[in-house]
Each structure stands twice: as structure tokens, then as C-alpha cells.
Amino acid sequence: MTRICSKCKYENRDDYDYCAKCGTPLVEGLQPRNIRIINADPQVNKKAILISYIITIFLSWSGFIINMFSKHSNLGFFTFFGLFLPFYLIQAPIWEIKKHGYIQLFIALVGVSLSFYVMLH
Ligand SMILES: [Zn+2]
């Protein structure tokens, strides 16, 4: 015996409660199946990403910027903190965040290099 779908006329197996083709209940009194679509593309918090850029730039370039105003400052060592956030972001499971981690790592490395360059010269 088969269960014929009232909606699409598809012949379903006897033990099926829902139509295999369209999901319509085959048994009277059964609630229509709730199909929950899971968002495969999780939303990335753009505001948080923006803030992380500001922090990374501020930290990693601070030695360079401060040295422009006051020479013989040892704040270049402080710029190493600018590498923490990019390294943290790189470990993210989502590529959208990982990508920003690599961009920030590049920004931070340039900033740290410049900070040390001006500090040691
Ligand atoms: Zn059907």
C-alpha cells in the first residue's frame, strides 16, 4: 500500500508520514513539517571587525606615530601588542573573519617594522 500525496499525487511509502517530494502531511491531523533553513552564511559583526582594525592600527603603529613627535621613545616595544588581535582573528573558523586577521597581521607587521625602524635610528 502506498500513501498518495493529496497535493502533488506522489506515491509515498506506507510508513511515510510526510510526502517525500513536497513535505505535505500524508496523515490527517498531522502538522505541516516545519522546515528550518539554517543560514549557511553566518553574519559577521561588521562593527566588531571595524573596531578590531582601529585597535590593531592604533597599537601597532603607535610606536611610529609617537616617535614622529618625540624622539628617543621606547614605545616601539608597545607595538607588539598590535599583533595579538590579528593572531586571534586568524584562528576564527569563518573565512570572513580569518581574512580580516591576515589583513590586520600585514598592517600590524608594517606598523611594528616602522616603529622599530624609527626607534633604532
Ligand atoms: Zn507531495
Write a structural description:
By secondary structure, the protein is mainly alpha-helical. The chain folds into two domains: 1-36, no CATH class; 46-120. The protein is 47% helix and 3% strand. A two-stranded antiparallel sheet has the order 1-2. The model has no long low-confidence stretch (mean pLDDT 84). The site of zinc ion has 8 residues, from loops. Residues 5, 7-8, 10, 19, 21-22, 24 line the site of zinc ion.
Compact summary:
By secondary structure, this protein is mainly alpha-helical.
Distance between the termini: 88 Å
**H and E order:** EEHHH
Q: Can you list the strand order of the major beta sheet? A: 1-2
* Average pLDDT, all residues: 84
Contiguous low-pLDDT stretches (5 residues minimum) are none
Gross morphology is rod-shaped
Structural class: mainly alpha
Number of helices: 3
Percentage of residues in strands: under 5%
β-strand number: 2
Write the layout of secondary structure elements.
Layout: E1 3-4, E2 11-12, H1 46-69, H2 84-90, H3 95-120
Antiparallel strand pairs: 1-2
Keywords, separated by commas or semicolons:
binds zinc ion, 2 domains, mainly alpha, two-stranded antiparallel sheet, 121 residues, rod-shaped
